[in-house]
Structures are given as C-alpha cells and as structure tokens.
Amino acid sequence: MADETQLSLADLVRNRTMSPAIAATLATAGEERRSLLVAAGPRLAGKTTTLMATLAHAPAGTAIHQLSEEHGADLGIPAEPDGGYLVMAEIAQTPFPHYLWGEPVRAVFRALRRGFSLATALHAEGVREAFEIVAVNDVPDDDAAQLDLMVYIRSLGPDWRDPERRVVQAVYEIEDVVRGEPRVRELHRWDEAADRFVDGEPPRRVGSTGDRLARHQRTFSAL
C-alpha cells in the first residue's frame, strides 16, 4: 500500500478529499509559509497527509523541523530563526514524545513570534473544539491567533479504521482569538447532502498579495 503521507494535494483532489479551490488555498498557504492546524475526530482521517501535502508547496530550501521531546528542552526548535516550519505532530496528552502537551505546546507557539511557521494537528470535532484544546494548554490568545488556517477533515464510513472516503469538511481562516474563542472566516465547506464543495468568503490573509492563489486555482482546476 502507498504511504498515505506522501499523497500530494493533486492526489487529494483526484480522490475527492478536497476541491481544486481548497487545494489552491492550501498550496498558497504552503508557498506563503502560513501556519495551519488540521483537525479530525477519529484517527486515520488524513491529518498528517494533508499537512505534509501542504508543506510540499513551501519555497525551496524551507527548513522543516520535526519537533519531539526526544530533542530535549528545546524540542528541536532552532535557537536562531530560519523561517522554517515547526511540525508538531499532534497536540495530545500521550506518552509519545512527538505528541506535545502543556508547556511544550506553549513553547512552540511562543517560537512563532520569532518568525517560524507552525504545522500541527489534533483530534477535534470542528473548529471551536479544536481551539478549546489549544486553550486548555494555556496558549495565550495572541499566540493562538498566529494560526492562519484550520482544516477540518471528516472520515466517512461505518468503520474509522477503514474509511470509505476522507473529505475536507471545512477550511477556516483565523481572524482572531478572544478568550480562547476563534473568530473565523469560512473559506470552503463540503455540502454533504449534495456531495459537493462550496466556496465561502474569500481569504484575507492567504493569497492577499500576488497571483499565487489564482495560479494554483488554474493548476488544480485543470486536473
């Protein structure tokens, strides 16, 4: 079986996980080194796949730092900012060293102030529950608001261990976080009844300058 984490955004459009417009938003986010959070309820929903497919569009030479408590107190965060991505595999309270909780999570968010970008995931049923988990880790609002996008993925089928299909339910642009509550713009959503993707409000952060978003839209729409 192919390694799911190696699927590209184009692959995820072809298998109907996301629309060309969603892929264009994510590719633009990667190219602009935007910070993003991917959430899903069950395991095996494709969180890591979506994160890594997005990061594949980061500019050539962008450093990707896989964080872990095995690296010691600094978690693998470089002392000097290099404009790279800090990849926190998951915000979760587990014995796995690459899943972080509490002060390590706060340390990662603090590092964004120094010019790093963040790619992370967690288990949640929607945007508000996701930010509740961030808030439970006592991440200050200003730090949480450094996230640019949140992607919420659904796993379809009776058995989460063998999904019939994975689908991006919604993509949100984060405008602000106030007392742990996110203020968001819904950029894209999946209409389950019609089984079609619907575009919502245009982004204000992602693709706000240049022609990146339009360029990626043309590319993915041609698939």
Describe this structure in words.
It contains 7 helices and 10 strands. It has 223 residues and is α/β, with parallel strands linked by helices. It has a single domain, classed as P-loop containing nucleotide triphosphate hydrolases (Rossmann fold, 3-Layer(aba) Sandwich). The strands form 2 sheets. An 8-stranded mixed β-sheet has the order 2-3-6-1-7-8-9-10, sandwiched between helices. Strands 4-5 form a two-stranded parallel sheet. The chain is globular. The mean pLDDT is 95.
Compact overview of the structure:
It is built from seven helices and ten strands. The chain has 223 residues and is of the alpha/beta class. The protein has one domain: Rossmann fold, CATH 3.40.50.
| CATH third-level topology | Rossmann fold
Count of discrete alpha- or pi-helical segments spanning 4 or more residues: 7
Q: Tell me the number of strands.
A: 10
Q: Structural class of the secondary structure composition?
A: alpha/beta
The CATH superfamily is known as: P-loop containing nucleotide triphosphate hydrolases
Strand content: 25-35%
| Cα-to-Cα separation, first versus last residue | 23 Å
List the domain count as a whole number: 1
What is Rg? 16 Å
Widest sheet: strand order?
2-3-6-1-7-8-9-10
- Shape, please? globular
Mean pLDDT: 95
CATH uppermost class: Alpha Beta
Instruction: Identify the CATH architecture.
Output: 3-Layer(aba) Sandwich
**Elements, N to C (H/E):** HHEHEEEEHEHHEEEEH
Which runs of at least 5 residues are low in confidence (pLDDT < 50)?
Answer: none
Name the helicity range. 25-40%
The largest pleated sheet is described as: 8 strands, mixed
